[in-house]
Amino acid sequence: MQKLIQKHTLTLEATKSLIAFAILKAKELGVGGAIAVVDDGGHLICLERIDGTMVAAANIAIGKAATAIGFKRSGAVLEQTVASQRPAMQTLNSVTPAPFVPLKGSYPIEINGEIIGAIAVAGAMNGENDEAIALFALEKFLNQ
Q1: What is this structure's pTM?
Q2: Using H for helix, E for strand and C for coil, what is the string for 86-143?
Q3: Which of 28, 51, 110, 138 has the fewest CB within 10 Å, making it most exposed?
């Protein structure tokens, strides 16, 4: 009987790389943003808030990342689910380490079939920008 499970984790260096890609895309779009990366338990590894970004974006990004990892779904999928199929999910604030924030701009980070964390962006003017920045960072990170 196997008593231990081997798993992979994000390093701080890897997390900073993800955030650097996100900042690159935000600058390209000419927007600010807060970028959060959490581990597979939804706990914050690293957060950066681009100068001039609204203060609340930091906590929103952390909540979005924790929600994406907690439900193993992108924020866009969760936002759609809450809006059109399961509005009662809005009551799930206590099931993730940070506030339940099912909004666009967050993604689980999956490598070789293993979900090892999540990235989220908030405060980039709208959900489409949050989404574009998070996706760009994740794609660049996974393809480097």
Answers
A1: 0.94
A2: CHHHHHCCCCCCCCCCCCCCEEEEEECCEEEEEEEEECCCCHHHHHHHHHHHHHHHHC
A3: 51
Residue 52 has which token pair? 């001039």
Sign of the Cα torsion 141, 4, 65, 108 reads positive
* C-alpha atoms less than 13 angstroms from C-alpha of 54 in its C-beta half-sphere: 11
Distance CA 112, CA 101 (A): 26
- CATH T-level fold of 12-142: Beta-Lactamase (3.30.450)
For residue 111, give the amino acid letter.
Answer: I
Name the residue with tokens 């909540």: 63
pLDDT bucket at 39, cuts 50 / 70 / 90? very high
